[in-house]
Write a structure and sequence with these properties.
Distance between the termini: 29 Å
Shape: elongated
Radius of gyration: 24 Å
Largest sheet: 6 strands, antiparallel
CATH topology of the largest domain: Phosphatase 2c, domain 1
Structural class: alpha+beta
Order of helices and strands: EEEHHEEEEEEEHHEEHEHEEEHHHEHE
Helix content: 25-40%
Length: 390
């Protein structure tokens, strides 16, 4: 494993009046540090398009991940997909991005808008080779990757945005390149970048998209480890070992929970300085401890982080809140969602006597469920997660 990792994020916009999106993104990771991303655009919109794009992306991603040749993948798609009774054609367009060890990218494109790539925050004209497979023109590229490279896959709903209204010929590829060049250096995550592009498309469509629009952004970045300490150990004799393992790990250190913070302060021999300032009325204030990057309250704060994590994976409507606020939950979100690539959880299984009050909606099982839910959400964000219990 090299020192680079791929930050992958995508967002879709449904055709106005449709419940289902006719575009589909499928991501498959294999055990040999290989990741296959397929963005497929089904013919038309609605249910039929959704079925076409889902079939296409699932079949291609699985076949490419298994190492089958491109020709066989395309032939299989042509033979598998049903024929449209109106147009008489049996296909959905697709873009394949195959990342190998996060240092080489193989890009295969069929009838989707040409992939945009930024290097050093500027447009990069990568080489392409034309291939003819079963009468279909395929573009293929093999690119050696560098840190901060950004690759943008999209369906034709993006460059078609604003056509006939804001723009005569839609939001052209060169306009989208300028859009990304203006924000690439800021350091937004791929999820945020894809959301920004799709949200701009929504505005250009006047709030009534005339086509499904999907953007998938891949950003190559340096690995950033992060460590979270949540709860004291079940056996107090394990406190020294738990703290030693936590603080010896490279990366930033987040401590969640008052009792946990007190134990950490004792271990470090440093004063714990609580804050009485409520940045958010329903999230307890943070504290300061030399040797830790962030100290927050426990269950209430982490529960809010889980809520934000689920939203981040979906509509991402709460981004404007947690990306700017300074309460404990928002600060954790920025560290985990935007900075971290590899996250180590150190979870204590001690039962907090304060949580045994039957009038409080907090118990041991809720705490463990929060860890499980947050870990799963972070994995879906593409983070490497390790959980250790004490």
């Amino acid at each position: 494993m090299n020192d680079l990792c791929a930050d992958i994020g995508y967002k879709s916009l449904n055709h106005y009046g449709e419940q289902l999106c006719g575009d589909h993104v499928d991501i498959v990771e294999t055990g040999d540090d290989s990741t296959v991303i397929v963005l497929s655009d089904g013919l038309g919109s609605g249910v039929k398009a959704s079925i076409l794009s889902t079939l296409t992306s699932k079949i291609i991603s699985t076949m490419v991940a298994e190492g089958l040749p491109l020709e066989e993948c395309v032939s299989t798609i042509a033979a598998t997909l049903p024929v449209c009774s109106v147009r008489g054609i049996a296909y959905s367009t697709f873009t394949i991005l195959h990342l190998k060890n996060n240092d080489t990218a193989e890009i295969i494109q069929y009838d989707n808008p040409k992939v945009i790539m930024l290097r050093n925050f500027q447009n990069y004209d990568y080489p392409t080779v034309e291939m003819n497979i079963d009468g279909k023109l395929i573009l293929k590229s093999v690119i050696k990757l560098q840190q901060d490279d950004m690759i943008v896959l999209m369906s034709d709903g993006c460059p078609h945005a604003g056509i006939g209204s804001v723009f005569n010929f839609g939001w052209k590829r060169e306009n989208i390149i300028e859009f990304f060049e203006s924000i690439a250096h800021v350091g937004f995550t791929s999820k945020i970048l894809s959301s920004m592009l799709v949200d701009e498309c929504f505005k250009l469509y006047g709030g009534q998209p005339g086509d499904d629009a999907t953007a998938c952004v891949v950003r190559l970045r340096k690995r950033e480890p992060m460590n979270i300490l949540f709860g004291p150990p079940y056996n107090r004799d394990d406190t020294e070992r738990m703290m030693s393992l936590f603080f010896s790990k490279a990366g930033k250190h987040i401590i969640c929970g008052g009792t946990t913070a007190s134990l950490a302060a004792k271990y470090l021999g440093k004063p714990l300085q609580p804050s009485l300032r409520f940045e958010n009325s329903d999230i307890p204030p943070t504290a300061q401890l030399e040797g830790a990057d962030l100290v927050t309250e426990g269950v209430i704060t982490v529960n809010r982080v889980v809520e934000y994590a689920k939203d981040y994976l979906g509509e991402n409507i709460h981004y404007e809140h947690w990306s700017t606020m300074h309460d404990g939950a928002s600060l954790i979100c920025r560290l985990l969602f935007e900075e971290a690539t590899d996250i180590n959880f150190y979870v204590g299984k001690a039962i907090n006597p304060a949580h045994q009050n039957p009038e409080l909606p907090i118990n041991f099982n809720i705490k463990m469920n929060l860890v499980s839910e947050l870990s799963e959400c972070l994995r879906k964000m593409g983070k490497n997660i390790k959980v250790s219990y004490f």
